[in-house]
Write a structure and sequence with these properties.
The complex is a heterodimer. By secondary structure, chain A is an all-alpha fold. In chain A, 81% of the residues lie in helices and 0% in strands. Chain B is built from 4 helices and 9 strands; from the N terminus they run ααααβββββββββ. The chains are: A mainly alpha, B alpha+beta.
Chain lengths: 239, 189
Amino acid sequence: MIKNTTRVSYFTNPYLLKMLLCCLTLLVTFSAFAHGVDDDTKQFLLNVTGVHIVPFLYIGSDHMVTGYDHLLFLVGVIFFLRKNKDILLYVSLFTLGHSFTLLLGVINNIQVNAYLIDAIIGFSVVYKGFDNLAGFQRWFGINPNTKVAVFIFGLFHGFGLATKIQEFQLKQDGLIENLLAFNLGVEIGQFLALGLVLLVINVWRKYASFKQFSTATNTLLMSCGLMLIGFQMTGFFLN
Amino acid sequence: MNNVNNDDTTSSTLSANTETSLLKSTIASAIIAVMVLVLFILPAEYNIDPTGFGEQIGLTVLAKPIDSSAINVGKVENTTTQTQKDVVTVLVPAGKGVEYKFQLTQYQKMTYQWQTDGMSLYLDLHGEPAGDATGYYESYTIATAKEMSGQFTAPFTGIHGWYWKNKTDQDINVTLITEGSYSVVGLKQ
């Protein structure tokens, strides 16, 4: 149908590719700087009052680009998605989910234990890896609705983002604006990181090795999720 | 619509994947995870090192700055109301951060004065409430300076003190003079 003729892969378009790479290089460079001056970021966040859109945009995107737990989950989600339309749909559901709880959590000052939330985020990675290996279908004979799952895990990821920003006990003055900027920053970071992941996966998909290694990749994904769970639960019990 | 997309994803999940390979994948992922956790992550993050491997390859140094609030909770009872005076020189190595702390009960006062032997340090004067295990702390002053003096009244019982970070490539000595009712907790690297 019409779908087939409009199936242009945005991520193999050479111009977009170049642009994305440039953006990513910039962001990674800035991130490297930012991590060198972590104390300054902390100092800024602890003392900040009033509206500061750009710094919060930056902190949000920085958190996402360097937040491997969120990225691992997204890798799992898009691993077997070929159509741009599907990618857009799933990523939107994830965005909707995490934005909702991020805003809700911070505005209503809902305190969730960061270790537990991060462990659940780890679990979401295990879940998606297992799902990609068709584990639910084979062992339990069920096909969980993948869209609902992505949305629900998005909600948990949002609480995770909320706990990160709550650590800094932001002042009420300008909170909503700063928060929205942080949220938007998260989406920018997600877009950039996802761009890179899609680029790699879409190129890789063309080779036979994609099929050969897809089991290994998803096994590794599950493994990383389990590591996150172990790491966070140890932290939870120690504290 | 739902079915179409579900089919799309599940049919492209590994159709060649057999029952045994799913089992293998699951077991393999668990084994890898446990190994990496035990050998690397737990030693580096929490200084939990059951195999001793983390210590051997020098990973546990990362986890050595342990939470002082946990250690010093027992000292709360020891605090005297008498005033004391202390002079100490703290070395802040190039590129490193160190903490020097005092135990104060609520509303106890401490007069302080410190200066470096030259260069400025990033500093964070902060307090951690006693008995708190969440790692929460409250910063009173964050600045970059080569000297600082004043009086400090503890807003809550707990560990209070300075975090100094040396951003230069030369070691810096800080001479700290304190007077008041407190007990010295000391250096935390």
